[in-house]
């Protein structure tokens, strides 16, 4: 946890524009072959000269993680994201490598991946065994400031129905090590094999959350409470909620769009909590199906409406999400930015559609990687 994140303890909560931060995971690739390369330690060491603790290792040596400080508005967040991506990209070039933003590796020999040396990862390998074989995956996480952890827990109940819409919005993982999976968001399906992953359970209170984590840890399903990898989760220490369902967005601009949508969704959820609304009890089975549809089709096909359980065009499900959060977007001044971003994404297609289009345009998966390298700093 960075010093900037820790500073949230002393920052007054802003109910209209709560602070937000983004974590992104990237793949290091060989620019000649397009294959993922185990060069993350070198890239991190070089990038840390500019980014300090904001750049760090991930579970495999194919991956770099970078994070913004807490930001108040979209202009500040985009500036930090572009600076972060530029620093990581420059560090990779200096090492004869490149970086891409894709939820899964387009090319490379990735099973099993080279694991980063760290005592915590050693414990994970001992506990989870071959589940680590497919952990070369990259996500985008959004953190949002809240008044306290008690309300962060209850906010998660309101986030649950909308997680598949966020997954579809940023679907960016169609290929896996040389193969077209047929899915727009393959990463989430690979991740879903873990014992504590996917949508969070319905949580009655902070005490319920902490007792559940303790039981999961005692059972051996968790190495420690921090390894509860639900797609929306309260921080263990800070008054924040983390939404981690999305593939890493292909561009900095898309990361800003995701963060603004998540912040507004958290804001609307907090309003419902403070009105005494415990949140809709969407059945786990329905959420599982909604995840699968979102992962399969992204924005191009049909999703599941979280309010009815019926299939709807994925774009219409996202429209429903934006209608739901419009009051918060209007209050924060972010409505115009989100409207423009969504219209662009609706026309251009999700990241998966653009990866597939690059394959057709450039004639190979190596061309897809080249396209991702070129788009990365944007």
From TrEMBL:
It catalyses: L-cysteine + L-glutamate + ATP = gamma-L-glutamyl-L-cysteine + ADP + phosphate + H(+). SUPFAM superfamilies: Glutamine synthetase/guanido kinase (SSF55931). Pfam families: GCS2. Keywords: ATP-binding, Ligase, Nucleotide-binding. InterPro entries: GCL_type2/YbdK_subfam (IPR050141), GCS2 (IPR006336), Gln_synth/guanido_kin_cat_dom (IPR014746), YbdK (IPR011793). Its EC number is 6.3.2.2. ATP-dependent carboxylate-amine ligase which exhibits weak glutamate--cysteine ligase activity. PANTHER family: GLUTAMATE--CYSTEINE LIGASE 2-RELATED (PTHR36510). This is Putative glutamate--cysteine ligase 2. It comes from Nonomuraea helvata.
């Amino acid at each position: 946890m960075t010093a900037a994140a820790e500073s949230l303890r002393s920052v007054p909560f802003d109910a209209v524009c709560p602070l937000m931060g983004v974590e992104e995971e990237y793949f290091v690739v060989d620019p000649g072959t397009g294959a993922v390369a185990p060069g993350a330690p070198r890239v991190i060491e070089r990038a840390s000269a500019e980014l300090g603790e904001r750049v760090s290792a991930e579970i495999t040596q194919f991956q770099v993680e970078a994070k913004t400080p807490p930001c108040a508005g979209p202009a500040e967040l985009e500036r930090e994201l572009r600076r972060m991506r530029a620093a990581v990209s420059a560090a990779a070039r200096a090492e004869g490598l490149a970086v891409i933003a894709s939820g899964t590796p387009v090319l490379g020999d990735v099973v099993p991946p080279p694991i980063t040396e760290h005592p915590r990862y050693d414990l994970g390998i001992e506990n989870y065994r071959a589940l680590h074989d497919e952990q070369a995956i990259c996500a985008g996480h959004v953190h949002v400031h809240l008044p306290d952890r008690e309300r962060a827990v209850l906010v998660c109940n309101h986030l649950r129905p909308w997680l598949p819409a966020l997954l579809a919005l940023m679907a960016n993982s169609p290929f896996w090590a040389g193969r077209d999976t047929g899915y727009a968001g393959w990463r989430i399906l690979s991740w879903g094999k873990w014992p504590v992953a996917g949508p969070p359970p319905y949580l009655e209170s902070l005490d319920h959350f902490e007792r559940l984590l303790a039981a999961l840890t005692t059972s051996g399903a968790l190495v420690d409470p921090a390894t509860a990898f639900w797609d929306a989760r309260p921080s263990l220490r800070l008054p924040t909620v983390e939404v981690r369902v999305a593939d890493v967005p292909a561009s900095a601009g898309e990361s800003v769009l995701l963060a603004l949508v998540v912040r507004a969704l958290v804001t609307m959820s907090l309003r419902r909590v403070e009105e005494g609304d415990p949140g809709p009890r969407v059945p786990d089975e329905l959420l599982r199906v909604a995840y699968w549809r979102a992962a399969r089709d992204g924005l191009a096909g049909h999703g599941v409406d979280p309010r009815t359980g019926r299939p709807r065009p994925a774009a219409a499900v996202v429209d429903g999400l934006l209608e739901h959060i419009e009051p918060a977007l209007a209050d924060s001044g972010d409505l115009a930015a989100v409207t423009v971003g969504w219209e662009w994404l609706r026309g251009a297609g999700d990241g998966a559609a653009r990866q597939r289009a690059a394959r057709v345009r450039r004639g190979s998966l190596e061309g897809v990687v080249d396209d991702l390298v070129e788009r990365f700093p944007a």
